[in-house]
Design brief:
Elements lengths: L16 E14 L8 E14 L3 E5 L6 H9 L6 E6 L2 E3 L7 H6 E4 L3 H4 L6 H12 L12 H14 L5 H5 L8 H13 L5 E5 L7 H18 L2 E6 L2 H7 L2 E6 L2 E7 H6 L4 H8 L48 E5 L2 E4 L9 H4 L2 H10 L17 H4 L6
Parallel strand pairs: 3-8, 3-9, 6-7, 7-8
Antiparallel strand pairs: 1-2, 1-4, 4-5, 9-10, 10-12, 11-12
Bound molecules: adenosine-5'-diphosphate (ADP) and magnesium ion.
The site of magnesium ion (MG) has 3 residues, from helix 1.
Length: 389
């Protein structure tokens, strides 16, 4: 059952780290605007995480927070600007082209099961291709597959994703399948190469509400039955709580809080996680959450200095606009990147940002002197006049 301690299988059952990322960063160059500006989108900045066997790690955040970019970096579909990966304890040359060996261990399942299957081929074709490329599990020599062994491997895969009877589903074409069934085929195709790690990018957000739970439970079963390490990327923190062992909350390209799923959702330490949770979970919501009325995520070409959340944060202090907060340990396995956790700040650093902004404007030195830059206005100021006054 989901949420209970998983029964693990395989040599990595002790929960050893399979994949480790350190300081992963991806900046997409953008440029040639009509204003002549060139710059970079700070899509993922300095993210470190480790993925143990038999555990589901959820990456949670609003649309545009860099979740898919992180998933692609972990799958090595794109090359990082900087940072390192280690798979099975071995360092990967991050900028080297990903080989088949890596793809065999780390598989990515995408959001849209309608786009990921070829409409002119049946299910069997979709599963036979990776089986042939990577060799049928348990069969003798690669390249010497008999069709009986392939049929058995296809049937086994369909059974693992609960598409039964397998021979019926193997012969179906994508248009004959529901969205949930298509996503199960996409998961079966990923499983065909016997990966250790499954990266699932918003795997249920395009599915009908009624069938989402079934696909989530399938991921939970794969963790428990097969000891897979799973990354569950989602904008929906409620589903992350349901499915995941660990939650990492992303905001504007950075991880701002991480910890056991129940702790992060019951005792959120970071103001952004608190904001995400305050947006009432709505099972009928199909679209990514945007927390309207409380500001919007920043432009990632020119992200706010310091804590990227500070322009939206009800607790913003002067320091928040000046320096990136370090990850602070707030409990067992629980950490949050917020200056509120630092008891050693000076009174000036703790000054509420809006008040500090007013002060620095009032006390502006004569022109020519090096004036401190006033922090940007707090977007909530307009919405809730007098709140900070
Ligand atoms: P999420 O999956 O959380 O919605 P993404 O990883 O898709 O976020 O995007 C993060 C940021 O990176 C967004 O601002 C997006 O526009 C930008 N981005 C993603 N891919 C590219 C790309 N290939 N080129 C330029 N910018 C990109
Ligand atoms: Mg995405």
């Amino acid at each position: 059952m989901i949420g209970q301690s998983p029964v693990l299988a395989g040599p990595d059952a002790a929960g050893g780290t399979l994949l480790e990322a350190r300081g992963l960063t991806k900046h997409f160059p953008v440029g040639g605007t009509r204003f002549g500006g060139h710059g970079v989108v700070h899509a993922v900045d300095d993210i470190s995480l480790s993925l143990p066997a038999g555990r589901i790690t959820a990456i949670v955040g609003e649309s545009g927070s860099g979740k898919s970019t992180l998933a692609k970096l972990l799958a090595r579909l794109i090359r990082p600007t900087s940072g390192t990966l280690a798979l099975d304890g071995r360092a990967i040359r991050a900028r080297a082209r990903a080989g088949r060996g890596y793809a065999r261990r780390v598989q990515l399942v995408l959001q849209d099961p309608f786009a990921s299957l070829n409409p002119i081929h049946d299910v069997r074709y979709h599963l036979v291709r990776p089986l042939k490329l990577h060799g049928i599990p348990g069969s003798a020599e690669r390249g010497q597959h008999r069709s009986g062994a392939l049929d058995q491997a296809v049937a086994d895969l369909l059974g693992r994703v609960s598409l039964t009877p397998p021979d019926v589903f193997a012969a179906k074409y994508p248009h004959e399948l529901s969205g949930g069934q298509r996503q199960r085929v996409a998961i079966a195709r990923a499983l065909a190469v016997e990966p250790a790690i499954l990266l699932a990018d918003e795997p249920v957000s395009m599915l009908d509400v009624s069938i989402r739970l079934g696909v989530l439970n399938l991921l939970g079963d794969l963790r428990e039955r097969e000891g897979l390490a799973i990354v569950y990327v989602t904008h929906d923190i409620a589903s992350a709580r349901y499915l995941a062992d660990t939650i990492a909350v992303m905001y504007a390209g950075r991880i701002v809080e991480t910890g056991p799923a129940a702790v992060v959702t019951d005792q959120p330490a970071h103001p952004y996680t608190q904001l995400l949770l305050s947006a009432a979970p709505d099972p009928d919501r199909g679209q990514p959450v945007t927390l309207r009325g409380r500001g919007a995520p920043p432009n990632l070409v020119t992200p706010p200095p310091g804590c990227r959340f500070h322009p939206r944060c009800p607790h913003a202090m002067l320091i928040c606009s000046q320096a990136v907060p370090p990850m602070a340990h707030t409990g067992a396995g629980h950490a949050s990147a917020c200056w509120l956790h630092d008891a050693g700040l000076s009174a000036a650093q703790r000054a509420p940002l809006t008040v500090a902004a007013v002060r620095s404007t009032r006390s502006a030195p004569p022109s020519g002197a090096a004036a401190p830059q006033p922090p940007p206005p707090h977007p909530d100021d307009a919405a809730e006049p007098g709140k900070e006054a």
